[in-house]
Amino acid sequence: MSDSPSIDRIWPDPESGLDDTAVLALTAFPSDRTWLRVNFISSIDGAATRHGLSGGLGDDADHRLFALLRRAADVVLVGAGTLRDEGYGGLRVDDASIAWRTDAGMPPHPVLATISRSLSLDPASSLFADAPVRPIVYTVASAPDDRRDALSVVADVVTVGETDADLVRVREDLAARGLHRIHSEGGPHLFGELLAAGAVDALHLTLAPTVDSGDAGRIARGPVAPRSARLASVLRSGEELLLHYLL
């Protein structure tokens, strides 16, 4: 679209003014296996949030990529804390994404999945009431029974551990449901746990051209052994970099 922020590919094979089709091709899920990718934004000094929210760091190009990454996903996986902090409602994609998904033989909207050990989620919230597809809530056996019963009315509640959620089991359950294209939007604790479980295949990282200082956290938290990554592509919009890594 003419009013969309311009995104250029600077590596590999430089090209200016990528349209949505080109961006989707660069960020496509593999067609032959389950794939879990994570999407984050960070300032150049490592801040994952501004005023406590990741949305404060992004500009129009980051928002465009954010929407396109959701477009091709079977399921969007988000930690319960991020759902609350970032004010998620029912997960719906835009009209262009609905048309693209329908043409590709996909349901109009991706499924929303979250992980909550305490099940401290309001079943009457718009997260569930406005959801076009029944969400999935992964939890543990020790979660309160009353909260489990209440959420079971509006979501599929799945136990994936006794006191700690097994992220490999989450990934396997999604795949068993036919949800092989898994797109995670954080937060940092979930990303750290996914890394520790060896469950992450790729990272899409927007590098915002700001130095934020302060006490903001990083994009991954927790005791994680260092992992190497391979750079798959570098996009740019103005001074902002859109990086794609394979883990």
Task: Write a brief caption for the model.
The protein is of the alpha/beta class and 247 residues long. It has helices spanning 20-26, 60-71, 80-85, 95-103, 126-129, 145-152, 167-176, 188-196; strands spanning 8-11, 35-43, 75-79, 111-115, 136-139, 156-159, 181-184, 202-208, 230-237, 240-246.
How would you describe this protein?
With 247 residues, the chain is of the alpha/beta class. The chain has a 10-stranded mixed β-sheet with strand order 1-9-10-8-2-7-3-4-5-6, sandwiched between helices. The protein is 26% helix and 23% strand. A hairpin with a 2-residue loop joins β9 (230-237) and β10. The chain folds into 2 domains: 38-72 and 184-247, Dihydrofolate Reductase, subunit A (3-Layer(aba) Sandwich); 78-180, 3-Layer(aba) Sandwich (Dihydrofolate Reductase, subunit A), CATH 3.40.430. It starts with 7 loop residues before the first strand and ends with a strand.
Give the secondary structure arrangement, pairings included:
Elements: E1 8-11, H1 20-26, E2 35-43, H2 60-71, E3 75-79, H3 80-85, H4 95-103, E4 111-115, H5 126-129, E5 136-139, H6 145-152, E6 156-159, H7 167-176, E7 181-184, H8 188-196, E8 202-208, E9 230-237, E10 240-246
Parallel strand pairs: 2-7, 2-8, 3-4, 3-7, 4-5, 5-6
Antiparallel strand pairs: 1-9, 8-10, 9-10
CATH class of the largest domain: Alpha Beta
Number of helical segments with 4 or more residues: 8
Report the uncertain regions.
Answer: none
Percent of residues in beta strands: 15-25%
Q: Could you give the distance between the termini?
A: 32 Å
Question: How many beta-strand elements?
Answer: 10
| The CATH homology group name of the largest domain | Dihydrofolate Reductase, subunit A
How are the strands of the largest sheet arranged? Answer: 1-9-10-8-2-7-3-4-5-6
SSE series = EHEHEHHEHEHEHEHEEE
